[in-house]
UniProtKB/TrEMBL annotation:
GO terms for cellular component: plasma membrane. One of its GO terms (molecular function) is ATP binding. Pfam families: ABC_tran. Residues 22-262 form the ABC transporter domain. Gene3D superfamilies: P-loop containing nucleotide triphosphate hydrolases. SUPFAM superfamilies: P-loop containing nucleoside triphosphate hydrolases. Keywords: ATP-binding, Nucleotide-binding, Transport. One of its GO terms (biological process) is L-valine import across plasma membrane. It comes from Neoaquamicrobium microcysteis. This is ABC transporter ATP-binding protein.
Length: 265
């Protein structure tokens, strides 16, 4: 299936869904006596791009882990496109169009860029268990090539992943997340460790994603987060304490005091 066809499928699935893209109601996650998340309520509309910001330990990654099913919430509910997925395992959420990137790159270093993306496309396709060796004319291979171009890695498609720069590996992770007509993506600090030039490239990639794909981005780099997010939720001590437009969050005195040291340049 080509990238255009995958986009059409994603748009139809999103249109067929009911309600919000993502809806958390009273989500709490306990680790023994420690509350990593406390009564988190969050609503993201289809196609919306949301930034979730906060200092280390605010609960951002735990929030992602609950949404993906890596952790089940201690209490509360999680709905994905109107369907209650609170108790679903991760693979069932993936089947419903949820994708995620991680803080630490999870790639096959000994394979080429094109092989990594092809495997991602194959893994979410009906023929994923086929033993047939793909040809360059294979539809999934064509889709993988389009995804590589979409994240600006066309020039290194045949390069081993282990030989890529760190920034290129982060771009590759985005290509993997785009495989198989995703409807909603969670980006976990995609700008971490990137150079200023690589950050600019990341912003261009994220802002050019198809409009039907909504996402949440966790990011410490405020310049990146405020450029790619349409709305922002601020977390502190496992709770969401403030939401607003990027300009409102950037200029909020309480946000500046807690996260920006009194100002933001």
């Amino acid at each position: 299936m080509s990238l255009t066809a995958e986009r059409n499928v994603g748009e139809m699935l999103t249109a067929a869904g009911t309600g919000n893209a993502l809806e958390l109601r009273g989500v709490t996650r306990m680790f023994g006596a420690l509350a990593a998340l406390t009564d988190v309520t969050l609503t993201v509309k289809p196609g919306e791009r949301r930034g979730v910001l906060g200092s280390n330990g605010a609960g951002k990654t735990t929030l992602f882990n609950c949404v993906t099913g890596d952790f089940l919430p201690t209490s509360g509910t999680i709905r994905l496109f109107g369907e209650d997925v609170t108790s679903f395992p991760p693979h069932e959420r993936i089947r419903r169009g949820l994708r995620r990137t991680y803080q630490i790159s999870l790639l096959f270093g000994g394979l080429s860029v094109i092989d990594n993306v092809y495997l991602a496309c194959r893994g979410v396709s009906r023929g994923r268990f086929s033993m047939r060796r793909p040809r360059r004319s294979d539809a999934l291979m064509q889709s993988a090539t389009e995804l590589i171009d979409a994240v600006h890695l066309g020039d290194v498609a045949e390069t081993l992943v282990a030989e890529l720069s760190y920034g290129q590996q982060r771009q590759l992770e985005i290509a993997l997340a785009l495989a198989g007509a995703p409807r909603f993506i969670l980006f976990d600090e995609p700008a971490a460790g990137l150079s200023p030039t690589e950050r600019s490239d990341l912003v261009a990639i994220l802002t050019s994603l198809p409009r039907h794909i909504g996402y949440i981005i966790i990011e410490h780099d405020m310049d990146v987060a405020l450029r790619v997010a349409e709305t922002v939720s601020m977390m502190h001590n496992g709770r969401i304490f403030k939401e607003g437009l990027p300009s409102e969050i950037e200029n909020d005195p309480e946000v500046q005091e807690l996260y920006l040291g009194g100002g933001h340049g």
